[in-house]
Amino acid sequence: MSSSIExxxxxxxxxxASKSEEGSGQDxxxxxxxxxxxxxxxxxxxxxxxxxxxxxxxVKAFKKExxxxxxxxxxxxxxxxxxxxxxxxxxxxxxxxxxxxxSADNLKVHGF
Length: 112
Fold this sequence. Notes:
By secondary structure, the protein is an alpha+beta fold. Helix content is about 30%, strand content about 25%. Strand 3 and strand 4 (about 80-85) form a beta hairpin. It is globular and about 55 Å long.
């Protein structure tokens, strides 16, 4: 009979999560969220795009592609966040993948 018990080995469930947060660019997640404003109005926010990319140019391309208004907001906790009018979550995912800015594994879509 073996003297080592498999269940008592130490395991850190957050080890790989902390490694992915330290990375930047293609390794970190891009969070795409929707926020309810007033009535039927919604706001799509994109957070986590690498600092290597010019977010104002990305917003300009999004605005032209989706026919909506958008801006880059400097958030105290999250850094620069892209805001777009309307529910653009699926369109943003498709564009980021097509343009090669992110892979499908790096995108995290939140919301109802």
